[in-house]
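Checked the freezer inventory, then went back to the computational side. Two predictions to log before the end of the day. The first one is the construct we discussed on Monday; recording sequence and tokens without edits.
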Amino acid sequence: MNIGVDAAALGMSSAVTSHSADVNSGYWNPAGLVNIEDNQLALMHSSYFANIANYDYAAFAMPIDNRSAVGISLIRFAVDDILNTTQLIDEQGNINYDRISLFSTADYGITFSYARKSTLNDGLSFGANAKVIRRIIGDFASSWGFGLDAGIQYKTRNDWSFGVMARDITTTFNAWAIDEAEFQTIKDAVEGQNQELPETTEITIPKLQIGISKLITFHYDYTLLASANVNVRFEENNDVFSSSFASINPALGFEFAYLDMVYLRGGAGNFQNETQIDDSEQVSFQPSFGLGFKYSGVQIDYAFTDIGDQSVALYSNVFSLKIDLSIFR
């Protein structure tokens, strides 16, 4: 749930909290859903670890009236056809390849979103997400979880935008059910191995994302969207600014557009204090690059999320599709 969706946003290093204004706002900031004028559909696919893991996303959003909108999205991150070799060696110590089986591990996240414009100021909007998390590790274990997000956006008449997204405000909770019979086969697979049952509860602590952006128009045909995010996690980690109370990670992005049809994007984020082999620390970051094309309600976007393998983070070629369903009317 933290990787991100939409190649357009990922091409800007996810610095879109303040200006996200389409079907993908259900992920980035649900308050932005009020900007859609008709039903929208979004799809995305990317692969990680040389196509071993697949990350897929689909979303749909629709306006209810001129002041509110709803959306639903589904994310799946999975590794399929994993070899289960825990029974490879039989009771006599012989290797028997017929005892190898396959299993998959998958994480699912389904999000229900609602957004509404303020009755006091049309530039102000609010949104909320209800998330259901499902995690499956073959026949060994599975879990259910639930959490809430909340977001605010404010757009001024001179094209400034501000946004705040609070993720997992209830502290997202996952409860695991472990098949103890299957676990026993793993525990006894290696003689003398002493494995204990893992914890059955998993907690995701709240995160805060604060964004600002400015849209600049040149000669009517050209626009430049410049944006910045400050991502706050309430824990101590390797973010570039870190303390025992919270860690802060900035992200910067831009989008250059021609006729609101052709897009060039770039950004930098995921600034980390990376420990080197001599125990010194060096700041690493994750640069991104993206392209997009939109015509007659159909938008295709591409992003490469770590140019030159600059950081230690996951990187991938990401493709996404967004369709304004009004084209079918």
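The second is the one RB wanted added to the comparison set:
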Amino acid sequence: MSLLKNIKYSVLDLAVVRKGDTLTDTFQNTVDCAKIVEDLGYSRYWLSEHHNMPNVASSATAILIGHVAGNTTKIKVGSGGIMLPNHTALSVAEQFGTLDALYPGRIDLGLGRAPGTDQLTASILRRGDNFTNYNFELEIKELQRYLNAENCKNKVRAIPGEGANIDLYILGSSTESAYLAAELGLPYAFAGHFAPQQFYDAVAIYKRNFKPSIYLNKPYAMVCVNVIAGNSDDEAHLLSLSMFQSFLNIITDQRSALVSPEETNLQEANEQQKYVLKGMTALSFIGSKSTLCQSLTKFVEDCGVDEIIINSNIYDQKAKRKSYQIVSELFR
């Protein structure tokens, strides 16, 4: 039996805006995809907080999570992640406590330290504080306190939030986050879809240093990677051009909407840009079902993760849903 049959598989959605689509179109695409992956057996559907990006519409993450949860029935929906320095722990507890009350047992709360935006926008979100000495661990513990039913004895309480049944996850793209997740005894999700360089070291550190907690008795490692499937390798690689263009746009600071493969201009990238692009997309798996079966199986053998979260940045929505279907067949 393939190793892939033994691990969970999930989706990360950034609510990417396609060229020619309205925001209403974008959110409808998100809901449509969530319904499809729910039927295909995916474990969770995560949305990520980003700001000041014309091509990404997931800035009001908690609201979008509620919208997706309200249009699905069983799949877990959550944040991959909420960027905690942009918020107070109390406000996050209240927002996700509300979501948990509306959709009991279905809400995940992944937490990240990065701003999810540029420094200028981050300074506005944070009311001018540059958070040089921000203590991520203490803020997580404060959030846990607000979510704990025993906080009812304190003067400041999260209502909703207090006593909520919400699973917390530490997100990261470095070894620093791995040490923190291990210390707190929480599941760890690595952002391999755009920052793969420290992935293998981070997972090893997390597993080696993990301390059992009331939340988790053994390490649970997750990784988000880019996966694009097609009926053939050639079709998948054609579809992937939109994804590579979106990463090139980040490198060149041109945050434009997602374009079709026919509208990409990757050939215009210089050697330095190509080098950076290759590094950013090192954990990308592209191909037919048989090709992906081989590459993803070897990947799981090498890293030993418990769950793969897939990011599929495909322009054509029909092809995107087909990709989700092909991938699900590898894990079921």
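For RB: DSSP finds eleven helices and nine strands in the chain. The first helix runs from residue 23 to 39. Let me know if you want it refolded.
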